């Protein structure tokens, strides 16, 4: 997870670390580890509690990358559920798995999009 804005927003709102921890219902030490980016993987539930305590949305706390990653994770979960209950034949599932593995091995830009190396592109 990239740097978060919790400390900055907390100070702008005039809260001490202790006050925000109490408002969010988390321990002061735990909140401190999140603020300082020592804990780089807090649960979404905790992030929501901090956002509510600061009266901001999650996107404001962690920027678009965190929000986009959560959205992407949710989309993958939905896709996997659909595949699981679709009645897809085993052969097709193996083909799908192969496509996903190939996509994972391709270079990506900083937005997670697959890039095409100029030597591999055919015009």
Concise synopsis of the structure shown:
With 123 residues, the chain is an all-alpha fold.
Give a structural overview.
There is one protein chain. With 123 residues, this protein is an all-alpha fold. The protein has a single domain, classed as lambda repressor-like DNA-binding domains (434 Repressor (Amino-terminal Domain), Orthogonal Bundle). 63% of the residues lie in helices and 0% in strands. The chain is built from six helices and no strands. The radius of gyration is 20 Å and the shape is elongated.
CATH structural fold name: 434 Repressor (Amino-terminal Domain)
CA radius of gyration is 20 Å
Parts with pLDDT < 50 across at least 5 consecutive residues? 118-123
* Derived structural class: mainly alpha
Shape: elongated
Note the main attributes of this structure.
single chain, 123 residues, mainly alpha, 434 Repressor (Amino-terminal Domain), 6 helices, 63% helix, elongated, disordered C terminus
Give the SSE layout.
Blueprint: H1 6-12, H2 17-24, H3 28-35, H4 44-54, H5 58-85, H6 90-105
